[in-house]
Amino acid sequence: MKQKKLKGADYLLLLLYLDNKKPIKSLTRLVKMMFLFNKEVVHNIKDNVKLNLLPEFIVYNFGPFSRDVYEQVELFRSLKFIEVASNSRVEEMGAFDNFELAASCDDDKEFEVDPLYIMYEYRIAQNGINYVEQKILPLESNVIDLLTRFKQKITTLTIKQILYYVYNKYPNYINKSLIKDEVLGYGKDNS
């Protein structure tokens, strides 16, 4: 089978599609998933990736940040490829979703975390399923297996666990973080 070269946006849709289309709960989790995809998964599937079309990440208030990921999500929402729904699920450090979303909209605006914050759930919609099945699949089974395991890991970790991992493994992305002391202190309490 000829190997397809996919963009980062294709992988975002594919990850939402895999693992029985299990949604990604929280914008923070979605963004850090794509960051970890770029840093840790791409090198295993580089023959399938257009490396110059991966989302770019910068150092920001909550670690790695990518306006590209937000723009992809908004584009996919407008095309009805994905659905975004509010979720009443409460998760430690989930309130940072409000800040992540605000950062994608207007860098100069200040936001406060609402104690009744909303976490968002991202799931692939029928248009997205059709696109994945018609334009992205089939892929080699080892690529599908790797991506499925990656998604399963991301969806089973808490936001705090993901942030702790990212902050420890990629310290160059946390020097502007407003929560680095809280995140890095997490490991001391739970070792």
Folded structure, characterized:
- There is one protein chain.
- The longest helix is centred in the last third of the chain and has 16 residues, at 141-156.
- The protein has helices at residues 8-21, 27-41, 67-78, 96-105, 126-136, 141-156, 159-169, 180-189; strands at residues 24-25, 58-60, 63-65, 82-87, 119-124.
- A hairpin with a 2-residue loop joins strand 2 (58-60) and strand 3.
- The chain is mostly helical and 191 residues long.
- The relative contact order is 0.21.
- The protein has a 3-stranded antiparallel beta sheet. Strands 2-3 form a two-stranded antiparallel sheet.
- The protein contains 8 helices and 5 strands; from the N terminus they run αβαββαβαβαααα.
Please render the helix and strand layout as text.
Elements: H1 8-21, E1 24-25, H2 27-41, E2 58-60, E3 63-65, H3 67-78, E4 82-87, H4 96-105, E5 119-124, H5 126-136, H6 141-156, H7 159-169, H8 180-189
